[in-house]
Amino acid sequence: MMKSIARLISNNIALIVLLVAIAALIFPEVFSVVKTSYINVMLGLVMFGMGLTLNFGDFKIVFMRPKDVIVGCLAQFTVMPAIAWTLSKVFGLEPGMAIGVVLVGCCPGGTASNVIAYLAKGDLALSVGMTSVSTIIAPFLTPLLTYLLAGNMIDVNIMDMFVSIVQVVIMPIAVGFVVKHYFSELTNRATEYLPMFSTLMIAAIVAGIVAANASKLMSVGMLILLVVVLHNMLGLVLGYVVGIVMRLPLEKRISISVEVGMQNSGLASSLAALHFGLYPLATVPGALFSVWHNISGAIMANIYRRMYDHNKKRTSENLSR
Which residue of 2, 17, 180, 273 lies most exposed, with the fewest beta carbons within 10 A? Predict the structure, then answer.
């Protein structure tokens, strides 16, 4: 029974996060119990869960197929930051919203991307490898890129951001990794419940941020929602284009597209709350991105799966001739 509930929740992450966000917008007083100060703890728990799913084999791809991972990570930390900066300028976003959008663009890939890559029939090993590597190098690149792109709009403390990412992301993942290594039998039993746990934590993060900014969202919601949707969709498309330019097979193109387009937006909201508290709207783009990229990810998984099946069928027909 419990396993069925866990699967039901994890398979409907997009719907659950969307419904929670709408409820928090309509009834902010109900969800105000989820304080924005809790975001770091909740995100740390999600990262701990990610660490429990990792093993040394996930990093083999870095050494066996370094080109694929390098191409993917370069796309991750160039395409999304560039799109974020461009959209902020094109739409003339005020500093708070602009820094929030830039933070989303400068963050590593999100954990949900691995699930979407699997459903889309992408190269799952590449997806996991990209998420792992981009997360590990995020303490260095995320603060630096944020400073370069937004340092002229707002004060960005690179060292403080570095420490925050290490505390909120790297340390929980490392602890989870060690726990899995030494208590593998216990963690293997818990693994099937981790997607449900991550879904509930992400939903709680979104609820807290939306509830805290409900009145502001009602006034600027459509503008920032448009920017978030464009940011995500352009990332998905350009990630796929990178794969085409590099002449990679379809499965790898799919994974790079998903990894580039889906960000660790919870980290973006966490960093915004920690370091840019003077700009309350800075947490909003990350929250909206968390809602939207799960919806778009589910849609793209269906599209990419059909592309994969069609490509496989056409290849089979050509070989049979």
Answer: 2
With 0-12 / 13-18 / 19 or more C-beta atoms within 10 angstroms meaning exposed / middle / buried, residue 188 is exposed
Q: What is the pTM of this model?
A: 0.87
Cα–Cα dist 321/308, whole Å? 20
Burial profile 26-50: b = 16 or more Cβ within 10 angstroms, e = fewer: eebeebeebebeebbebbbbbbbbb
* Rounded-to-integer distance, Cα 30 and Cα 156, Å: 33
CA distances to 85, 195, 206 from 286, in Å: 15, 20, 9
Name residue 29's beta-bridge partners.
none
Rounded-to-integer distance, Cα 232 and Cα 305, Å: 19
The pLDDT tens digits of the residues spanning 213-257 come to: 787 777 777 888 899 999 999 999 999 999 999 999 999 999 999
Residue 263: strand pairing partners: 109
Furthest-apart CA pair in the chain: how many Å? 66
